[in-house]
Amino acid sequence: MRNILLDTGVFVALLDRSEKNHERCVSFLKEFRGHILTTEPVLTETIYLLGPAFRRQGTCIEFILQGGAALVPQSTESLSRALSLMKKYQDIPMDFADATLVVLAEDTGINDVLTLDNRGFRAYRMHGGKTFSVLPSL
C-alpha cells in the first residue's frame, strides 16, 4: 500500500470548494489507495487559511478524526531538524510546515508529497539528496 504526505495547499483545496484546485485534488484523493500522513503544523496552517468560521475549521479537524490523514506529532529532534532545514532553504523560503514534512519524509522514507507547492518541493532534498515526487501532477 502506498503512503503519501499531505501539504497545506492540497489540504485547503480539498476542503474549500471555491479553491481553483479543488476538483483536481478531490479527484486525486478519490483514486488514491494508501495512507496519508501529515504534521501538526500543516493542520494548524490549514485551519488558519480556511478562516475563523467554526464550520470550516471543524471540517478540517473532522477530516483527521475520521481517518482522512494520520497526524504525526513533532518531537524535539524533529523540531531541531526542521529549524536546520528552514535555515538551509531560507532563500526559497521554506516555512515551518514544509520543514516538518521534509523531516517526516526523512523519518519514514516517504518521498511522495501531495502539494501545490511545486517550487518548494521540487527544490527540497531529504538526507542523501533524495528528491520528492510531487502530486497531483499538473
Could you explain how this protein is built, in words?
There is one protein chain. The protein is an alpha/beta fold and 138 residues long. It has a single domain (2-135), classed as Rossmann fold, CATH 3.40.50. 53% of the residues lie in helices and 14% in strands. It is built from seven helices and five strands; from the N terminus they run E-H-H-E-H-H-E-H-H-E-H-E. A five-stranded parallel sheet has the order 3-2-1-4-5. Strand 4, helix 7 and strand 5 form a beta-alpha-beta unit. Helix 1 packs across helix 3 (40-50) and helix 3 runs antiparallel to helix 4 (54-65). The chain is globular and about 40 Å long. The two termini are 23 Å apart. The model has no long low-confidence stretch (mean pLDDT 96).
- Structural class call reads alpha/beta
Q: Name the CATH architecture.
A: 3-Layer(aba) Sandwich
The span between the termini is 23 Å
Q: Rough shape?
A: globular
How many beta-strand segments? 5
How much helicity do the residues have? 40-55%
CATH class: Alpha Beta
Content of β-strand: 5-15%
* Widest beta sheet: strand line-up: 3-2-1-4-5
Regions with little confidence, pLDDT below 50 for 5+ residues: none
Please count the helical segments. Answer: 7
Radius of gyration over all CA atoms, rounded: 14 Å
Order of helices and strands: EHHEHHEHHEHE
Q: What is the count of distinct domains?
A: 1
CATH topology: Rossmann fold
According to CATH, the homologous superfamily is 5'-nuclease
Mean pLDDT over all positions: 96
Major sheet: 5 strands, parallel
